[in-house]
Design brief:
Helix 2 crosses helix 3 and helix 2 crosses helix 8. Helix 10 links the parallel strand 14 and strand 15. The model has no long low-confidence stretch (mean pLDDT 95). The chain is α/β, with parallel strands linked by helices. It is 30% helix and 28% strand. The strands form 3 sheets. Strands 3, 4, 5, 6, 7, 14 and 15 form a 7-stranded mixed sheet that branches. The longest helix is centred in the middle third of the chain and has 23 residues. The chain folds into 2 domains: 146 residues, Quinone Oxidoreductase, Chain A, domain 1 (Alpha-Beta Complex), CATH 3.90.180; 140 residues, Rossmann fold.
């Protein structure tokens, strides 16, 4: 008989959706060639959307949310993994179209998994999570676009959130001067502790954008989108680059071609969901090498599975600082 374990599920109702805790077995899980015993997950912005129904993230009902997790392989029919391997999952529709990390076990495709770097504990990998992994993809993209520390500062928008917090810590360790943009000025000490040299109010960037502004930064990591991203692009220095990885303010981009054709600015799209394995492994290896783990600890809070529904509401309300690790 299959072992019974606890799962957090979202079900469709006549009024929208509801979150429930259920006891299920591995027989209830979806198809896949690797069964993982999950130790930790996390709460990302997208998890908040899925759990609250504020955006149509969930496309299969009912669903176990949780777009990432870490754990130990229990059984495998995939050539790349064997029982006992420690593995990480980010993206690939898990927690949206396939049962995700908010349960003690997950059955997924081995092609979606990455081996956990030896230099990180399971809890640390979820302190990083999809938000931190996205931050690393963004920093790598800026590096490959030729952005260097001697060319000027990097601005990080949504600085107090998960992507922003990890981006600041990474960029500071790599020698960049970092400007943090936040709507929470009370977090200034926290952001400076992560490595930000200067703090600017979110309102400076959230208004109606001009086609071009004063050249202020050599590059950016933007998780906000909309007018904020447009203003960031407008003030990027000649030859600079902007990594766009989020849409907290909106999906629109009210800008012009001026920064691109008059200043040679590059807009770099960052996708963490379907990124190929080579790019994923590079990002995780770099995180193990380049992220200050003391700063990671400073931005991390650990919660239980019972705390996840409330955390989902808080993250959408902008009340979550840094990263949330869920002990499964």
């Amino acid at each position: 008989m299959a072992d019974t374990f606890r799962a957090l599920m979202v079900e469709k109702t006549d009024d929208g959706q509801q979150t429930v805790f259920k006891d299920i077995t591995s027989n209830d899980l979806m198809d896949g060639d690797v069964l993982v015993s999950v130790s930790h997950s996390t709460v990302n912005y997208k998890d908040g959307l899925a759990l609250t129904g504020k955006a149509p993230v969930v496309r299969v009902w009912p669903i176990i949310p949780g777009i990432d997790f870490v754990g130990t392989v229990e059984s495998s029919d995939h050539s790349g993994f064997k029982a006992g391997d420690e593995v990480i999952l980010n993206g690939f529709g898990v927690g949206e179209t396939h049962f995700g990390g908010y349960a003690s076990k997950a059955r997924v495709k081995g092609d979606w998994l990455v081996k956990k770097p030896a230099g990180l504990t399971p809890a640390q990998t979820m302190a990083i999570g999809t938000a931190g992994y996205t931050a690393m993809l963004s920093v790598i993209a800026l590096e490959k676009a030729g952005v260097k520390p001697d060319q000027g500062p990097i601005i990080v928008t949504g600085a107090s959130g998960g992507v922003g917090s990890v981006s600041i810590a990474l960029l500071a360790k790599l020698g960049f001067e970092v400007i943090a943009s936040t709507g929470r000025p009370e977090e200034a000490d926290y952001l400076k502790g992560l490595g930000a040299g200067d703090i600017i109010e979110r309102s400076e960037l959230s208004g109606d954008p001009r086609p071009l502004g004063k050249e202020r930064w050599a590059g950016a990591v933007d998780s906000v989108g909309s007018k904020t991203l447009a203003n960031v692009i407008a003030s990027t220095k000649y030859g600079g680059a902007v990594a766009a990885c989020g849409l907290a303010q909106g999906m629109d981009l009210p800008t012009s071609v001026a920064p691109f054709i008059l200043r040679g600015v590059s807009l770099l799209g960052i996708d963490s969901v379907m990124a190929p394995l080579s790019r994923r492994q590079e990002a995780w290896d770099r995180l193990a090498a380049d992220l200050d783990l003391a700063k990671l600890e400073a931005m991390t809070k650990t919660i239980s599975l019972d705390d996840v529904p409330a955390a989902a509401t808080d993250i959408l309300a902008g009340k979550v600082r840094g990263r949330l690790v869920v002990e499964i």
